[in-house]
Amino acid sequence: MKSLLIILVLISTSTFAGAQQSRAPQPRLTRSQIKEAERRLADLGYWTGAVDGLLNPATRSAIVAFQKWEGRTITGKLTSDELDAIRNSAAPKARETGYEHVEVDVDRQVLLLVDGNDGIRVLPISTGSGKEFLEEGEPSIAYTPRGRFLVYEKVNGWDGPVGSMYYSNYISGGVAIHGFPSVPRTPGSHGCVRVPIFAAREVSQRLPVGTIVLVYDKVSFVSGKPWVENPKLKEAALLASMSAGFDDYNYPTNPANKTKAFVIKKVRPRITRAD
Question: Considering the entire predicted model, what is its pTM?
């Protein structure tokens, strides 16, 4: 009996020690290790901001984008395990190459800025939640349309009825790529493509009117190359997008900042104006 009690005590002690060890926090990384992670992430194409060894919003955003692309648990934290994964990872690849465009990967919830030399910059995003909501009393669905689009209208600075959209780049009706104070790690917008607010201004600078935007998921993809190969097709598509946009929106000038403010006139089924 005494031997049995000793065995039980040893087992309990070992189990408790193992549990304590599994809950023990990983050691904090040094500034040089953080800088190493930033440099590696930047080399891979993730938008890190300055490589300075500081865990600022841009660095955490790059970590989130990396975790999304790699299918890892999304924490936004840099641990020794994440550092090892970053060291051993490969660079993200755009679905299409050979021309300048933007890709919105709805499944991974990331945006890729693709330049003419196939270089990329990757940001975490949040697209339409898929939930129902009311817009001016009319039912709508928070849906981000898939397909091939063009940036047809831009607004610098803040816009939207509640001033929640920062540097908006409209691609379909009222759906825009824009900065937002909050970018959830899962789909959570009213249909727009939210990007981190610290990057919104530079993103907008890289998206002039006419920029091709490909929005896709695992079951849908439309190539932008026909527009590259035949500029007249692209021009016609841009004119059609602009015409549709003006059908749905007024563009009164805001006398305070001389920028155009969008005022909704009607809501398209299943596509909201913005978020």
Answer: 0.81
* Three-class SS state of 63: helix
Single-letter code of the amino acid located at 45: G
What string of DSSP letters covers 197-230? HHHHHHHHHT--TT-EEEEEBTTB---SHHHHH-
Burial classification of residue 74, based on how many CB atoms lie within 10 Å of its CB (0-12 exposed, 13-18 middle, 19 or more buried): middle
Please tell me the distance from the alpha carbon of residue 244 to that of residue 236, in angstroms, as a whole number.
Answer: 12
At residue 107's C-alpha, the angle toward residues 188 and 75, to 5°, is 65
Closest CA to 101 of 272, 256, 227: 227
Region 166-193 average pLDDT: 95
Q: What is the tens place of the pLDDT at every residue in 75-96?
A: 999 999 999 999 999 999 999 9
How far apart CA 187 and CA 194 sit, in angstroms, is 9
Cα 36 from Cα 49, distance rounded (Å)? 13
191: alpha, beta or left, given left = phi > 0 and alpha = psi -120 to 50?
left
Strands (E) located in the chain: 101-105, 110-114, 120-124, 132-135, 138-141, 147-150, 153-159, 165-172, 175-180, 193-196, 212-216, 249-250, 253-254, 259-260, 263-264
Strands 259-260 and 253-254, by their bridges, are antiparallel
How many Cα atoms within 13 Å fall on the side-chain side of residue 275? 34
CA distances from 240 to 60, 172, 208, 236 (A): 39, 10, 17, 6
